[in-house]
Structure formats: structure tokens, C-alpha cells
Amino acid sequence: MREVGTDWATCPGCGLQLPSVNWASDGRLQNSPECWQLYTELVGATMSQAGRAAAVQQLSIDAYGAQHAGPGVAPITTVFSLLGLFLAIERGVPGYEVRDAHQRLAALDLRWPELTRPARTGEVTVFDVALADNPDEHVRLAHEWARSVWQDWEYCHPAIVELTERHLPDLARR
Fold it and tell me: Name one Pfam family in it (predicted).
């Protein structure tokens, strides 16, 4: 009998190791196809849920975006992800309002700052959230993931706060 081996892939964004798949990566983020596949499955699952788990969908989108930022990622992606984390974590803004804030900012003709990715971008990954057994645990883990990522981008907090205060003053001062 032969042993069957599994090839493993390491995500360049979050460091998550998953079995290799034959799937294309997003290409806009610093991620592996394996991590991207897990993320799209998680987001798809939250879209089909009502209530609290669905309410953290935007939080998960922003946590993933900030965790997988880096060279080659559009500055707007990184800024929007961090701004979404700031609004949700520091100001308690619900996901649908964060999404609306992204749309308001996208309508402006701004030059987005290029932020250098920190050495670490959170200890919690999409994998941890995907392991949730129920909607309440999913919500708890999504918040833990977002806080973990936001914390590791600490050097950017003043720039994100200033940008929010300048362009979204109604949300910045909640």
C-alpha cells in the first residue's frame, strides 16, 4: 500500500497553511488560492444566514482585506479595509453603514495613501472563523479576527482616524 501525500500551500498574507487546491487566487490581494477559496466559502455562508452572523459579513471582508494587504494590492483596498475595521471596532458602526461609508468615499476623487504592511497582520485567520459551530460563535470569532488584524496595523491608526475625520466626520465622532 502506498502513502498518499498532501501538498500544502502557505498563504503569503496570513500565513495559513492549507492543502493545495487547483483553484485561481483573487489576484488583487496577497493570498493563496487555498485561503481565497476558504474566504469565499465563509462569505458565501454568511450571505445565506440571517441575523447576527450575516451582520459581521462586512467585518470579515475588511479583516481579510487588511490581513492580505501588501505589495501589488491597490492602496484603496488597504485603506478601505482599515477604515472599515476602525469604524466597526472603535466606533461601533454596523456593517451596512461601513459598506455605505466605503461607497461614499469611493465617489470622491482622492489619492489613497500607500500603507506599508506590518510584519504581522493578526493571529486569527479566516480558518478560525470558519471553524465556528454556530452563529453566535461565528460572530465572536469574526470580532476577534477583526480586533487582531486592527491591532497589528497600529502604526496606521492615526492616519486612518484623520482620513475618517476629514471625509466621514459623522461616523468618526460616534
Answer: DUF5946
